[in-house]
Amino acid sequence: MGLDVNGVRFLLAARDAGVNFERSAMLGRQKMHLLPQALQNLMNHFGYQDSNNQAQRILDQYDRFAEPFLRLLGAVKVDSFDASPYEKATCIHDMNKPIPGKYKNKYSVVIDGGTLEHVFNFPVAISNCMKMTEVGGYYLVITPANNFMGHGFYQFSPELYFRVFSPANGFVTESIYIFEDI
């Protein structure tokens, strides 16, 4: 799991659109999968001046995990959720099971950088994400929808997200972006 050029571009655009990253939750501990020059170019494009090799420093910290990048976007608190302690997530929790109450309504943004398609009990997992997101918060997802056989349990269409994050469930879908990665 991780953030490539398109995932980073998406998160920078989300920040520009007003997403509050102050209290961020990552599903899986996301790594940054792009070169320093690509990160620098994206940062420059979105108005972040790359002083003192900031892009390189972001990638060098924490073995390329995404926390320094999320701090650039305004995160004060970043929690990462994983079923395993392997990548040193801050919260060890199996998303197949209901989320403990202490994580409910806690995050201004919940970021799924490619996790939920690997969680067997998707209804519980997506419900967890909805419960973790505070009122007025955001759920951001980066997921393949390319018929790539063998990648996770599921590939979700935009229709799923329109139905799940609907007014009937207490959400408003502001936008969905689809890109072709060639």
Keywords:
182 residues; alpha/beta; five-stranded parallel beta sheet; two-stranded parallel ribbon; 7 strands; globular
Topology summary:
Elements (H helix, E strand, L loop, with lengths): L1 E2 L1 H12 L6 E5 L3 E2 L3 H10 L8 H7 L6 H6 L4 E6 L8 E2 L14 E6 L9 H11 E9 L16 H7 L18
Parallel strand pairs: 1-3, 2-4, 2-6, 4-5, 6-7
Describe the overall structure.
This protein has 182 residues and is α/β, with parallel strands linked by helices. The chain is built from six helices and seven strands. The chain has helices at residues 5-16, 36-45, 54-60, 67-72, 122-132, 158-164, and strands at 2-3, 23-27, 31-32, 77-82, 91-92, 107-112, 133-141. α1 packs parallel to α2 (36-45) and α2 crosses α3 (54-60). The model has no long low-confidence stretch (mean pLDDT 93).
In percent, how much strand structure appears in the residues? 15-25%
Computed structural class: alpha/beta
The low-confidence runs, each spanning 5 or more residues with pLDDT under 50, are none
Kindly state the mean pLDDT as a whole number?
93
Strand order of the largest sheet: 5-4-2-6-7
Inertia-based shape = globular
The span between the termini is 19 Å
Number of helices: 6
Please give the number of β-strands.
7
Question: What does the largest sheet look like?
Answer: 5 strands, parallel
Radius of gyration: 16 Å
**What is the string of helix and strand elements?**
EHEEHHHEEEHEH
Helix content: 25-40%
Summarize the structure.
The chain has helices at residues 5-16, 36-45, 54-60, 67-72, 122-132, 158-164; strands at residues 2-3, 23-27, 31-32, 77-82, 91-92, 107-112, 133-141.
